[in-house]
Amino acid sequence: MLAEADRHWLDAQAEALDSDNAQAHAVLPRLAAAQLFGLGVPRAIGGQGGDTRDAIEAIAAVAGHSLAAAFTFWGQRVFIEYLLQSPNQALRERWLPALLDGSLAGASGLSNAMKFLGGIEALQITATRQEGAPGWRLDGSVPWCTNLRPQGFVAAVVVQRADGGAPLVAALQGGQAGVERSADLDLIALRGSNTASLRIEGAGLAADELIHDDANRFLPTARPEFLGLQCGLSIGLARAALATAAQIGGAGRAVLDASLVEQRQALDATVDGLYAGIADGRFRTQPEALFRARLALADIAQAAVQLELQASGGRGYHRDQPLSLARHWREVAFLPIVTPSVVQLRGELARRAAQSAS
Predict the structure, then answer these.
(1) What pLDDT is recorded for position 296?
(2) Which one of 51, 132, 135, 253 has the fewest CB atoms closer than 10 angstroms to its CB?
(3) Band of the pLDDT at 318, cuts 50, 70, 90?
(4) What is the pLDDT of residue 345?
(5) How far from the centroid of its chain's Cα atoms is residue 263's Cα?
(6) What is the CATH number of the domain that holds 227?
(7) 150 shares a domain with 118
(8) Which helix (H) or strand (E) holds 201?
(9) Are β-strands 168-173 and 210-212 bridged in parallel, bridged antiparallel, or unpaired?
(10) Is the pLDDT of residue 113 over 70?
(11) Of 87, 135, 85, 137, residue with least CA distance to 110
């Protein structure tokens, strides 16, 4: 799936993409040249065909080399997915070619929206009808959004209508009047992912810039792809950490073999279940199974990196050793907090269980 040259480039840039944004500009063109963004996109509209499982595997392949690059990939691919599921064909035709060739960045500003869907927090952007003119005025903020590439981006956001109507799923463009991108967030890792916040003050929204006119209907439909593609981050990191642990384990570390086998089997079984649920569509009506898969994969990735630490031994604490442990440790710390976080998913499962019991 990844050409040798792309694997070498990602390996060579992995530390830089984790620690600063000097190479952030190069990620999208590189992944686009490898034709990764078109996986799971119908050939008739410019993609490579296949389905969401192919896109997840591609994200996992990238995550095995650099989680920062894979997180950028996720933002791009999930925005493409929103366009694929949108009834707004004109919007899809306008932006899809540039998204596929990497000349335009797609950003998913729906973290707040997914929390809203779970009843965790209110929407943070308000849409007000403009007097004497079509469309809406938008005001609010997006505290965290990945793939806001300074060279050009379009971001999906959900906005609450001031008149009480159904929330809207809208698209905002970089450079648009009333949309201001912050400096990159001061993260402890994944700093090459163009992650920033957006301040929205008096931005205009025309009807033809709507991804969907009812977020309450759109978000549950898009959630399997949103979370499924996100699972590729955990899958790729877990595979890489387990492979590294097996490779570097030396004398005296054979005691880890059984744990390595156990985690590989758990990973394979969880991925098989994830792909089965995506293939038969059950996650649209049974999201609890998807939530559990996402939680399980994050746990497996944590266990895999722990095994990498144990196999590395003291070498893992030497900065002059060519080991991936320190970066994997920072990367795996991100998986429990990416929206929806582990805490949010567990809370949602508990809430649904309580509703079923009552």
Answers:
(1) 98
(2) 132
(3) confident
(4) 92
(5) 23
(6) 1.20.140.10
(7) yes
(8) strand 196-205
(9) antiparallel
(10) yes
(11) 85
Residues 6+ apart with CB under 8 A from 112: 121, 123, 124, 142, 143, 158
Give the dihedral of Cα atoms 299, 304, 307, 309; nearest 10 deg.
Answer: -100
3-state secondary structure of 342: helix
How far is residue 14's CA from residue 10's CA, in Å, rounded to a whole number? Answer: 6
Find, among 54, 46, 146, 62, the residue nearest to 98 by Cα: 46
Same-domain pairing of 240 and 187: no
pLDDT tens per residue across span 185-230: 999 999 999 999 999 999 999 988 999 999 999 998 999 999 999 9
Q: Are residues 143 and 259 in the same domain?
A: no
Number of domains in the chain: 3
Binned at pLDDT 50, 70 and 90, residue 304 comes out as very high
Structure tokens at 168: 């809207």
Handedness of CA 223, 228, 233, 238 (dihedral sign): positive
Contacts of 270 (CB under 8 A, 6+ apart): 293, 296, 297, 300
Distance of alpha carbon 110 from alpha carbon 71, whole angstroms = 15
Orientation of helix 257-280 relative to helix 287-312, angle to 10°: 160
Which range marks the domain in which residue 304 is found? Answer: 216-357
pLDDT tens digits for 276-299? 999 999 999 999 999 999 999 999
State the pTM of this model: 0.95
Q: Does the structure show a pLDDT above 80 at 311?
A: yes
pLDDT for position 134: 79
DSSP SS3 for 165: coil
Is residue 237 located within the same domain as residue 301? yes
